[in-house]
Amino acid sequence: MSDKITVLLTGASGTVGLECLKQLVKIPTLEITVFDKKTKASVKKLSPFREQVELVYGDITNLKQLQKVASNKDVVIHLAAIIPPLADDAPKLAQNVNTEGTRNLVQLLEKQSPQCFFIYSSSISVYGDRLKNPYIKVGDPLTPSPGDEYALTKIASEEILQNSKLDWTIFRLAAIMGGHKMSKLMFHQPLDTSLEIATPSDTARAFVNAIQKQKQLSKRIFNLGGGETCRIPYKDFLIRSFKIYGLGEFTFPDKAFAEKNFHCGYYEDGDDLEEILHFRQDSLDDFFQNEKENFSSFKRLGASLFQKPIKWYLLQQSEPLKALKNDDKKLKEQFFN
């Protein structure tokens, strides 16, 4: 019999998941099982770990495939999810994976690993639009913004976990920045949003450190953010990002961005989790420095040479602008005051 702690990690090929895996494999007292959907991207990311972990590919919506990994687990770190913009474009898929997938996992664990500690990744999106009152606490009402299908799946999953027979903790993640592609979602966020980020490595560290802190975390919900050194107004975040990526000045019109109905804010009680887990090592400056180092000078040169067409292309992704242009009353109502 092994005296190692058996850990199941789902969604290991995602941004936070991969960081989690890198940190978990460095701990000799853990026996790690990874469950992830088989895609070209996931195989490429996870193959280097196949000697160090039990690697199981499958679909979280398939009980038979999930059953293979639900036995004899001490800890579960559940990160697998469909995230925006796909979650909002394909709400049925998001519900199946995020909510029903969580339900499947919880039900199997209740039977096969009833003593396990379930660490769940939720989201700041559950609080909805906080432009007028950006300081957020765990007990605040859950009022997701209209059209935020992702937030709805997270709220439903939290309820499943809270009503289960398992021991659990829930981390509501702030904006996780790292490995992001610019997409139409950037225009859904109002420019005057109060933005608190967390880096993938800090976020992963919280999940990994949580393994040893079950007693302090048991049956509790926490807000997970980078803290005061990771706060910035969204417009300033974009201004700094444009310079790093070789796009020059931030010249997009204000009306390209929504004026309401997104999420994000500052976690007023974010230090509660930090005091237990001591996971914060990165600041906003560290994030930007890291982005600068990882964005090749060749790419930056290319972006600066083709600034105008790149910015034009990005602007075409703006749904608020399209709503104005097409006089789409429903979308105008969603995006503008």
For the structure shown, list the relevant keywords:
single chain, 337 residues, alpha/beta, Rossmann fold, 7-stranded parallel sheet, 3-stranded mixed sheet, 15 helices, Epimerase_deHydtase, NAD, NAD(P)-bd_dom_sf, oxidoreductase
Characterise the protein shown here.
Belongs to the NAD(P)-dependent epimerase/dehydratase family. Residues 7-184 form the NAD-dependent epimerase/dehydratase domain. Keywords: NAD, Oxidoreductase. This protein is an alpha/beta fold and 337 residues long. Helix content is 41%, strand content 16%. It is built from 15 helices and twelve strands. The strands form three sheets. The protein has a seven-stranded parallel beta sheet with strand order 3-2-1-4-5-7-10, with helices on both faces. Strands 8-9-11 form a three-stranded mixed beta sheet. α14 packs across α15. 40% of the residues are buried.
